[in-house]
Amino acid sequence: MQGMSTGDKHAVVLVSGGLDSATTLAMARAAGFICHALSFDYGQRHRAELYAADRLARALGAIEHRTMRIDFAGIGGSALTDQNIQVPEGQGGAGIPVTYVPARNTVFLSLALGWAEVLGSSDMFIGVNAVDYSGYPDCRPEFVRAFEQLANLATKAGVEGTSQFTVHAPLIHLTKAEIIKRGMELGVNYADTVSCYQADDQGRACGRCESCRLRREGFVSAGVNDPTRYR
Fold this sequence. Notes:
By secondary structure, this protein is of the alpha/beta class.
């Protein structure tokens, strides 16, 4: 990348606008990375998270923030992209919920990988979590390891040996309470984050969906005041 010095550590950080990705960005910065924030307008019904992502990228010190457009609504199959599928409320049931977006993190990381290769960076950060989560298959450690292997097989930089790509998932084994405590230590303002699957245009949460439940329980367990704005 033009202007990148030998000692610089640049990373592409996926930033959704939610609690987890905000903490991940703060952790990447604390680890000394120069962060390039990447968000996606993928046809999600909770578009307020995109405005939150922009606020967080600026507040948490990313040197640039890009929002790319993907048409996941074009394939449907998820309550987050298909208005005909209702977002479930209350306690999640057995199995993978209808809020799972097919191939979402695979596509997100693929585009992050492409940008990292152009930047000359070998590091990507994603805020997936496999403890307090909804059971999505692309949030598991196995997925992260497999994608990292793919990254080093599928790129010019990987084949030529100029980069050894690493997918950092610093939240993968943390509880939601532990994530919140770590973010508080790093100065994350969680009032700026939007986690709700059906947040309104002002970013106010429904308080009833699975994401709201996990977020609320995390603040309670952490002993931290919940700054979420509810409808």
